[in-house]
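Sat 14:20. Reprocessing the chain from the morning session after the first attempt stalled halfway. Input below, unchanged.
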Amino acid sequence: MTTSSLPRLGTLAVGGILAVTLPFWVGDFYQLHLAALIGVYWVLIAGLNLVVGYTGQLSIGHVGLLSIGSYAFAIVVGRYGVDPLLTLALAGALGGLCGFLLGLPSLRLPGFYFAMATMAFALIMAELSLAQGGLTGGGAGLPVPGFAAPFDTPTGFYWLVLLVAALITWMTWNVARLMWGRGLIALRDSEVAAAAVGVPIFRLKLTVFTFSGVTAGIGGALFASLQSYITPETFVFELGLFFFVCIIIGGRGSILGPFVGTVVLTALPEMVAPLAKLGNFFYGLLLLAVVLVVPEGIGHVIKSVLARLQKKGPDPKGLQPDIGRLAAAVRRGMRQDIQRGHAS
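Finished this time. Tokens:
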């Protein structure tokens, strides 16, 4: 372990302790609900970050995959009585399958055409959830059962969300820091250059998008249980834009930045609660400020601050030149030049 990594590990340890002990010092259950909502959103955004932040694909329709996981959880647990934890895994598998089927044709589209395809998917899912009343409850929606003990209390559910979010974060961190992550960044910066060095472009895109579908399905199941009742209006298209903006504000190409963006944008309505009518104004103002002032995102600012707090490189005193040795070397060189001049 290097000395420069100690501050980062210390920050990570303090953050982990605060997250685990949050139910013991939080003010009320609503604040705990807000913390759980941040964790649920992060489960989805952590996977989406690999698509948007690392691969550079403009996916704005992940709310459709979120709704699939939510309705799957509500139907399978509520109507058929399947174990909620097993259904959580099934929702992730279903989200991954839908992500695979969506990405198979749409990932061949360039840039904004792919974004339009994901937007169309989100709108189609909203219409299907409204039209299939016998399955989804239509406009009336569906009640969503909770998890069994020990996750049947607000504190227990928060710890479940924290565990799932930590697992997803660990998985995305491993993808980002290893060869896959370097391949994703190369693909984002230049598909031609990435293909030239042997990066499997389409397979990499499809794999990452499928993984983001898995995280969206799991996040949807947790989201439905947290809400306890879901309707088609729960999964508005603006929610998909919210997920996308969290990554842009946090900063692409990192994990810490989008997480900070998720926390800030989820908690922002509570910070400006007395000015609720101006909520969209504050969202737009924050996005504009970040794009103009810190285009690299909030994560870049945090990394810069941490880098300044770390002692990098050797002590500057050790870099001072040895004047005596330098003068002796110059004198020897001059004598050798004089001797060669006499010899010639």
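Residues 313-318 have pLDDT under 50 and may be disordered.
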